[in-house]
Specification:
Layout lengths: L8 H9 L4 E5 L5 E2 L14 E5 L3 E10 L12 E8 L4 E6 L15 E9 L2 E8 L1
Length: 130
């Protein structure tokens, strides 16, 4: 399917633009990496292939951002969370449905789903609490 596509930042973003969360899977040990790597972080193997993640996971932690980088200044305040995907790797993303005024509106351990929103002409990875 994606055998000839290199494991680069540009390829990763191209997949996101097509609403696919892709990482790498080691053909030797089965380890999954997200973002994609050119060498397995588990066994140092170089026989990797693309792997599409389902995008379901569990919220591990979160924080509210009140002072943001310039390109996100119109979004403050917003929440950012770290989710552990069902397949194992963790991912950091904005939480799109968090109520910033309700500090208890987000629960650690909540089920989350990866979603994509269109910003600046590209798809941005976000988390939605299920």
């Amino acid at each position: 399917m994606n055998e000839k596509i290199p494991f680069t930042v540009n390829a990763f973003q191209d997949f996101l633009n097509n609403k696919k969360l892709m990482g790498t899977k080691c053909r030797d040990c089965g380890n999954l990496n997200l973002p994609p790597r050119i060498i397995c972080t588990e066994c140092d193997g170089k026989r990797l292939e693309w792997h599409e993640f389902k995008g379901n996971g569990t919220l591990q932690t979160y924080t509210f951002i009140y002072t943001a980088p310039t390109f996100l200044k119109d979004k403050v305040p917003y929440a950012v969370g770290i989710a552990k995907l069902e397949e194992g790797p963790m991912i950091t993303a904005r939480i799109t449905d968090a109520d910033i005024n309700e500090s208890n509106s987000i629960d650690i351990g909540a089920n989350v789903k990866i979603e994509y929103i269109q910003e600046s002409g590209r798809n941005i990875l976000t988390l939605r609490i299920k």
